[in-house]
Amino acid sequence: MAAQYEPEIVLYDLACTKNVCFSPAVWRIRLMLNYKHIPYRTIFLEFPDIEPTLKGLGLVLGESPSGNIYNKYTVPVIQHVPTNTYIMDSVTIAQFLESTYPDPPVPLTSELGLEIGAKARAVVGRAFSTSLMPRELGILSPRAQEYFRRTREESLGHRLEDLFDKEEEAWSAVGEDIRAVGELIQTHKADGPFVLGARPSYTDFFIAGSLQSARMVDERVFQRTIKYPGYGEVYEACLPYMEKKD
Ligand SMILES: N[C@@H](CCC(=O)N[C@@H](CS)C(=O)NCC(=O)O)C(=O)O
Asked: What positions does the domain GST N-terminal occupy (predicted)?
């Protein structure tokens, strides 16, 4: 008889044509779920279905328990099945998972982790958004492409494809800074492959999740990033927790 599989968590993820997770924010949570061996199932939502679905689940915008203000419906969202609780935003979800499933522990913050997170967002994030935003269209359904193009071009003020003209300039502007963040990532190299040494922390999941997201959109952007020392090592060390992708 097949074993009964009762998911503890339902994970709302972002759909793409590859039918695997490609959202960096959702990957952070997926890595935590996989690392902690928490049973879960996934519901993939197309971009235009995120807001109506989450509203329908009763989620409201405003201030979250973590103090963040939400003014937009986003994934990841989880449903904690045993208590029928819905939670939005990766930071709030990570705090909930850590307090509800503390073993094995995932340190959520550290001074080094905060520094890496902030610097990586500023420098790698800048290069990633230039390279990945226009290429993301290539893995979206026609409906999601229409939504993504409309909303992103509205905020950019120009066509997504115009980013290609700025791509090389964006990467060379931050090259040295990407290398410096890579050095920070290797601070505890002597103790193990992760940012804090032997065991993963949320910062590792942030790094590995962002790299996996880039890889799902375009292998070349991933390869370009792991040429800088530090990034690929964390990614490799997190691979065992990336097996469940859907
Ligand atoms: N603060 C949010 C941001 C997550 C986020 O930006 N999610 C994107 C997918 S990667 C999203 O759901 N976007 C919806 C939209 O653009 O309409 C978190 O970390 O959970």
From this structure: 22-99
Domains of the chain: 9-100 (3.40.30.10), 111-241 (1.20.1050.10)
Q: 208 near 234, Cβ under 8 Å?
A: yes
Helix (H) or strand (E) holding 80: strand 77-80
The answer to whether residue 180 scores a pLDDT higher than 80 is yes
Q: How far apart are CA 224 and CA 215, in angstroms?
A: 10
Q: Is the CB of residue 14 below 6 angstroms from any atom belonging to ligand 1? A: yes
Determine the atom of ligand 1 nearest the C-alpha atom of 25.
Answer: 19
Give tens-digit pLDDT for 135-158.
Answer: 999 999 999 999 999 999 999 999
Instruction: Determine if ligand 1 sits within 6 Å of the CB of residue 23.
Output: yes
Q: How far is the CA of 166 from the centre of ligand 1 (A)?
A: 24
Return the half-sphere exposure (C-beta side, CA atoms, 13 A cut-off) of residue 206: 23
Q: Which atom of ligand 1 is nearest to the CA of 51?
A: 17
Is pLDDT at 59 greater than 80 in this prediction?
A: yes
pTM, rounded to two decimals: 0.96
What gap in Å lies between CA 50 and CA 41, rounded to an integer? 17
Residue 11, pLDDT above cutoff 80: yes
Give per-residue pLDDT as tens, 193-230: 999 999 999 999 999 999 999 999 999 999 999 999 99
Q: Is the CB of 42 under 6 A from ligand 1?
A: no
Is residue 114 within 8 A of residue 184, CB to CB? The reply is: no
Our answer on whether the CB atom of 47 is closer than 6 Å to any ligand 1 atom is yes
